[in-house]
Amino acid sequence: MSALAIEHLTAGYRRRPVIHDVSIDGIAAGSLTALVGPNAAGKSTLLRAIAGIVPASGCVRFDGADLLREPIARRAQQLAFMPQSLPQGVGLSVLESIVAGLSVSAPEHVRSGRDARRAAVSVLESLGIVDLAMGRLDTLSGGQRQMAALAQALAREPRILLLDEPTSALDLKHQERVMGAARRLAETGCIVLVVLHDLSLAARWADRVVLLHHGRVVADAPPEEALTGDRIGVIYGVTARVERNRAGRLHIDVGGLAESELG
Ligand SMILES: Nc1ncnc2c1ncn2[C@@H]1O[C@H](COP(=O)(O)OP(=O)(O)OP(=O)(O)O)[C@@H](O)[C@H]1O
């Protein structure tokens, strides 16, 4: 199965680079990678660059091709990107929005409108939100919109799934559902890259954690190696201890602002 390799990626806005020469290699099929880092570190920009939404130099290698140079239609068949927030003013129901997304790039077994509706309902069921199917996107709560955005991305059955802070508006149950769905998709061979602010969530669900700071990779390792108290302290400007709880899970205990941050 194909791995994803990001090579010397530089990207930004109006010629101001935000991501500087980022390389992340061997992102294996079937793996879930968390992208973490402080605000404005460049996490969303990196995802958008991989998705081809912001211009980038360098290369995103997948399946023998450079995704950055693939035609949009071909890239859309491989990759789905869930943005931090859905655009406002879209007068569609959740179900209609998923079906509309499938009309752009549906998996092979979704051939007719009926198949698309069936696929959409099945994704909504898997996320436990089938009751939202007929709800209009514009009338949903922030968390419900986030779940709808995830459903749109999952329905396309991508080989690479890019999730930008998919849990930021969600309660604990829905966080579990979202991370569980991402993990299940990874288990089918998909490559999942997910931006997370919650480091405990990253430690719990990710195989690999990439820590970004000022647009550069400062750690890229399994969670227990990437997320050390000292490193979190320096990068986030807090005092932090990383412990294993009784269940064996990493827990990040933040004690307060680092001395350097206290005015
Ligand atoms: N559309 C845009 N136009 C211009 N600059 C942008 C745009 N989007 C982001 N930036 C800038 O790029 C830098 C990185 O932003 P980005 O959203 O990638 O960071 P992030 O790590 O995802 O942040 P956060 O955790 O706060 O969401 C910031 O300085 C931001 O101001």
Describe the structure.
It is a single chain. The protein has 263 residues and is an alpha/beta fold. The protein folds into 2 domains: 3-227, P-loop containing nucleotide triphosphate hydrolases (Rossmann fold, 3-Layer(aba) Sandwich), CATH 3.40.50.300; 228-262, no CATH class. The protein is built from 9 helices and 12 strands. The strands form 3 sheets. It has a 6-stranded mixed sheet, with helices on both faces. The protein has a 4-stranded antiparallel sheet with strand order 2-1-4-5, covered by helices on one side. A two-stranded antiparallel ribbon has the order 11-12. Helix 3 (94-104) packs across helix 4 and helix 3 packs parallel to helix 5 (142-155). The chain is globular and about 60 Å long. It binds adenosine-5'-triphosphate (ATP).
What molecules are bound to this protein? adenosine-5'-triphosphate
- Record field, number of beta strands: 12
CATH class of the largest domain: Alpha Beta
Oligomer: single chain
Mean pLDDT across all amino acids: 93
Q: What are the segments in which pLDDT stays under 50 over at least 5 consecutive residues?
A: none
CATH architecture of the largest domain: 3-Layer(aba) Sandwich
N to C succession of SSEs: EEEHEEHEHHHEHEHEEHHEE
CATH superfamily of the largest domain: P-loop containing nucleotide triphosphate hydrolases
**Considering DSSP H and I runs of 4 or more, what fraction of the residues is helical?**
25-40%
Given helix and strand content, the structural type is alpha/beta
In CATH terms, what is the fold-level topology of the largest domain? Rossmann fold
Number of domains: 2
User: Which sequence of strands runs across the widest sheet?
Assistant: 6-7-8-3-9-10
Shape: globular
